[in-house]
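Listing S7. Sequence submitted for prediction.
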Amino acid sequence: MNYWIIASWVFVAIFTAVNIFVFLKLKQASEQMMKMVAPGANNIQEAMGQMQSMMGGGKSGGPNLQALMSQMNNPNMQAQMKQAMDMLAKMQQKKR
């Protein structure tokens, strides 16, 4: 009986460690994605605000395409877009 109690706590400790590891990796990935989407944002609210302002502020007229295109001509934005596309290509290659 004592053996099963110890074994169950060992399994709990192992699964807890795995969960913490996975959580930290997912948190790191989400922070990296947020930095790609909104470079100066510290949290998700600021990122959403930047995205809304970039897309025209939620006006009924639709997104501000001129502002969006002017940001795409920015070398920093082009580098981020290339990095995102490369990451997407690597992910698709791993699935095959």
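Caption to Listing S7: primary sequence and predicted structure tokens for the chain studied. The longest helix spans residues 2-37. The helical segments are 2-37, 44-54, 65-72, 75-95.
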